[in-house]
Amino acid sequence: MMQIQRIQGRDISDALERARETCGLEAVVLSQESHSGGGVTLSVTRRHAEPKPAKPPAPEPRPTPHRESADVAEVRQRLGEAGCSDELVEHILTPVRRLQAEGVHAIDAAAEVLGRLFKVAPLPKATGRLRTMALVGPTGAGKTTSLAKLAVVLLQRGRRVALATTDTYRVGAVDQLRAYAEVLQVPLFVAATGDELAGTVAAAQDCDVLLVDTAGRSPSDTESLTRLEPGRASAGRAPGRESNRVRRAAARGGGRPQARLAYSVLDPRATILTKLDETREVGIALEFCLRHGMESAFLCDGQDVHANIHRATAGRFADLCLRGRVA
Q1: Cα 220–221–223 angle (5° rounding)?
Q2: By CB count within 10 A, which of 99, 129, 225, 231 is most buried?
Q3: What is the DSSP-derived secondary structure letter of residue 147?
């Protein structure tokens, strides 16, 4: 049976820290309640260990080097150069060998397997109502540039777009986004608090999409963004509001535990992988998404806001792992 604990704190950052101390890294935030007199209360439970799946059939014996075909060896080499772990490489090569035995070229077989392995996030459909999309993630992940790129994509699709930022901490952050807004000829709002962000949403009702840049300070981002959904019963996504996790392709690991817990409140719907041009080992980031069950929405490989953003597709996942670039 799920056990729910009520954790109180002075603010969202203090409450998240207390939740982590009480429940450890398995803490899952179910809901958040802000009090009129100050303070925050979180409803927190501990993620139970999932039952171990049935033991899979014994893997196909790995061929000795002199028996492995040159084509399969080439796939192994390319996956290794892409930063894929040995475990993931073998997971891919097992069906590749089977498909090769059926007459499929090893590279084509690997592309097919990779395309099925990584999941693509569907784009939200236009509803005639304002949709708020926030980009969250650590400082340096490329949120601001990705925001401008998303604006270009949406404008090309005929959407009415507005930009907003809660990043009043980083020097030059507002000026950078203001420059993008002027080039794209879209309105820009600056919101230093959750109340100001809520007011921004009200002011942008004539638009189709409000793109929100955040500061990379996860507790502060969480406090501002959750103010858009007062009184919600759980941490589930509200209609018309969503967040996307921006992750630098060269980043290793999953980030600080407190940040992961804070972002879990926002329930990011998908990942935007950035700076793919800065690393050959893109498999590390893709494997992170695979391990955490996260879908990918966009792939970014440069600074040009008009050109260096691509919809995630099965073929592009394969290109990243087998060719080291987005084709």
Answers
A1: 65
A2: 225
A3: H
User: Taking the mean position of all CA atoms in its chain, how far away is CA 36?
Assistant: 32
For the chain, give the longest Cα–Cα distance: 72
pLDDT in tens, 176-219: 999 999 999 999 999 887 778 888 888 999 999 999 998 765 55
Which DSSP string do the residues of 58-70 spell out, in sequence order?
PPPPPPPTTTS-H
- Within 10 A of 261 (CB to CB), how many other CB atoms are there? 23
Token pair of 14, please?
A: 């203090």
Kind of pairing between the strands at 209-213 and 131-136: parallel
Give residue for tokens 């007062």.
Answer: 230
Q: Which two tokens stand for residue 315?
A: 């073929």
Q: Among all chains, which residue has been given the structure tokens 């927190």? A: 44
Angle between helical axes of 218-226 and 194-203 (0-180°, round to 10): 50
Q: Which token pair is 46? A: 């501990």
